[in-house]
Design goal:
Elements: H1 16-19, H2 34-47, H3 49-66, H4 68-91, H5 94-99, H6 101-116, H7 118-141, H8 146-157, H9 163-170
Helix pairs in contact: 2-7, 2-8, 3-4, 3-7, 4-7
Length: 179
């Protein structure tokens, strides 16, 4: 058997019947055993990762369709803020920036603009946070089935690498819990 360490396979899309409908079994996690709860979440993240990705995109787009102007302004605000931070870091001008009175007025103006755009920024953050919250809730409540357990053994043994497996590995959550 040849190890394909660098090949990343996308997990198949699970049926809606298995994901949330008739076959799906949900139960509150045992909050007194955080390791078992975390194990359930990680394994569900691995097994339903394609469904979660589509759910995240769908909810983000739904929020964007409900509030398109606020979403676009919020995205633009984040892009501009990151561009300003990157510019200041690259030019190492933060010490000189603080000394100038004009720059102080500019910073004050940017602060007022930030307050004015706060609703749009919160809409954008809500568009990101809501789908992530829904994924965590589903992964916490969804009981695992036999297919889920077999699939996760393949992922942890290294026969199969998926985007979620790589993400969990990067966050160092892959080896911390037993299957």
């Amino acid at each position: 058997m040849e190890m394909r360490k660098n090949v990343i396979e996308f997990a198949p899309l699970r049926s809606m019947n298995d994901f949330v409908l008739e076959k799906a079994r949900f139960e509150m996690p045992n909050l007194s055993n955080p390791n078992k709860w975390a194990n359930r979440v990680i394994n569900n993240l691995l097994y339903y990762q394609s469904n979660y990705l589509l759910s995240i995109i769908a909810v983000f787009l739904l929020v964007g369709l409900l509030h398109p102007a606020n979403m676009l302004i919020g995205i633009g605000s984040f892009c501009v803020a990151f561009a300003i931070v990157k510019y200041v870091k690259q030019n190492h001008s933060s010490r000189n920036f603080r000394k100038s009175k004009f720059n102080g007025l500019l910073l004050l103006g940017l602060g007022v603009l930030l307050i004015f755009l706060l609703g749009s920024i919160l809409t954008f953050l809500f568009g990101i946070a809501l789908p992530l919250l829904l994924v965590i809730i589903h992964a916490s409540l969804r009981l695992r089935n036999i297919k889920n357990k077999v699939n996760n053994v393949k992922e942890f043994v290294g026969q199969k690498r998926t985007p979620m497996g790589v993400l969990l590995e990067t966050l160092e959550l892959d080896d911390s819990l037993a299957i």
